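Subject: sequence -> structure tokens, single chain

Hey, anyone have a minute? Need the predicted structure for the following. Not urgent.
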Amino acid sequence: MIRKVMAEIDVKLGIRQTLQKIEETYSKRLLLSNAPKPLLVAVSKTKPIDLILDAYSVGQRDFGENYVQELVEKANDARILEHCQDIRWHFIGHLQSNKINKVLNLPNLHMIQTVHSIKLAEGLNKAWEKLKAENAAKQQKLNVLVQINTSGEDEKNGVQPEDAVGLFRYVLDKCPNLNCEGVMTIGRFGHDYTAGPNPDFGTLMKCHQDICSTFECDPANVQVSMGMSDDFVQAIEAGSTIVRVGSSIFGARAKKPTDA
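Reply:
Had a minute. Here:
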């Protein structure tokens, strides 16, 4: 059954079509902004290794995973280690403090996109400092994004918009082992764009503006991660520099139990 489903999914075509939409949308946005071309993070959660290998074979390098155990298994998979040596893993799910070391010890970890609290920032900073002392491959700072709850939904993680500058400041001032590259949100699902722009995107861009103004940053150098399969085009139009696209590339996801 799995092979049949995989045969029906053309991952390489999905990558090409998604990159084409990113290019087209970005070309139009260039008239209004000097922000960099958005980075595509292919969200491979619940998908088999073979599909990741397909995506990698056509040049895709950045992959996102939501679940700690699944990321651990994929990052350490023998085929990934042999054939995808330049892969860059982005953790985009909720990270509990007791699972920090599991994630940070992984090969080819590129970024934690979901730093939603001072407690998590502290935990990551201390764990990365210890790893740097033990592992020559971990000498660079750990790339992170501050996650912001732009929709106000209780089930969504993230700092409140009014506290975004404060958390960003904490990471900059108190976490010397972290490289805070920007901001991220998930936002409310299913926005009706016939009613107007996505307010969650507007909220994140306002947080981005406040951070750039407060810390005198060039806006082009502060990343904005927002937009998924159903709205990444609108996210780019609003100012996103990282889009997280899964089902448009890999097909619909199977339901997965909560990460243990």
